[in-house]
Amino acid sequence: MDVYLPIANLSVNGLIIVGLGALTGVLSGMFGVGGGFLTTPLMIFYGIPPTVAAASAASQVTGASVSGVFFQSRRGGVDYQMGTVMVAGGIVGTGIGALLFRLLERIGQIDTVISILYVVLLGSIGSLMAKESIQAIRAERSGEKLVAKKRRHHPMVASLPMRWRFYRSGLYISPLAPLLLGMCVGILTMLMGIGGGFILVPAMLYILGMSANVVVGTSLWQILFTTIATTMMHALTTHAVDIVLASLLLFGSVTGAQVGSQFAQKASPVRLRLILAVIVLLVAARMALGLTYNPADIYTVAPL
User: Which domain of life is it from (predicted)?
Assistant: First the structure.
């Protein structure tokens, strides 16, 4: 089923794009991540220009996050106060990201920068996730109990002024910490089309020290509004949002998120995390390969 994408200016198989959206939705429901960190590189591998892939993936992640937020809200897993502070930072970050996007686009380096960011972020986070998962599986098989690290916010967070009490997360910290975290995620969302959950979730656990039972829901809450702001910013500044592409992705992701939420309740969290880590590392390796090898068709545009 061929579908023409007007902004990307090419025809694609609509069923493949819907399948990518469904994969994103499953990841959103299972891990509390927007899934854009996989959708964008997979679309690039499929042949969609990186700028269009990043801009359109952000709008699709919004849809994937909606159903996830509803599910987490019903079980009381969202800290709305913390999430709103991070959303405020995310909106500021999208504005900064828009300026960087236009600057990199003007000098012709946006595609390369997007690929490098993916290699660095996916490679580092995938390695950490794989290491923790393997340690947990080994301990489970040997019957040993891993000593749980005491969840506490980072010393730098404790030094920030103007503390607020975030009751749902069990924290008494400065709002500047989640504000800055949201701002960083907003910049990355604008540049890479990611939801930012694969950065937010570990950061909220190990930097902010949030309670684990509200991390996934709060992450999805922040992702929801930050990706809305990102989509609007892309539509107004870069004009790279392909509504046909985003609609196909969205169609698959809404269903996938519900499937992922149900599956997460039955599967082993440790093994799920290891599977996600392997997927992340494979994508990072493929992105790194794309930066180094010569394409099959090499050409230049030069006067005769």
Answer: Bacteria
Quick one: average pLDDT of 101-123?
A: 81
- Enter the pTM of the model: 0.69
Q: Is residue 207 part of a domain?
A: yes
- State residue 304's pLDDT score: 47
The parent domain of residue 279 ranges over: 2-291
pLDDT in tens, 185-219: 888 878 776 666 667 777 787 778 777 778 878 88
* The pLDDT of residue 263: 66
> For residue 108, is it left (φ>0), alpha (ψ between -120 and 50) or beta?
left
Handedness of CA 208, 161, 186, 284 (dihedral sign): negative
User: What's the angle, vertex CA 231, arms to CA 228 and CA 232, rounded to 5?
Assistant: 90
State which amino acid sits at residue 235: A
User: Is residue 300 in a domain?
Assistant: no
Is 303 within the bounds of a domain? no
Name the domain count of the chain.
1
Does residue 304 fall inside a structural domain?
A: no
First-residue to last-residue Cα distance in the chain? 40
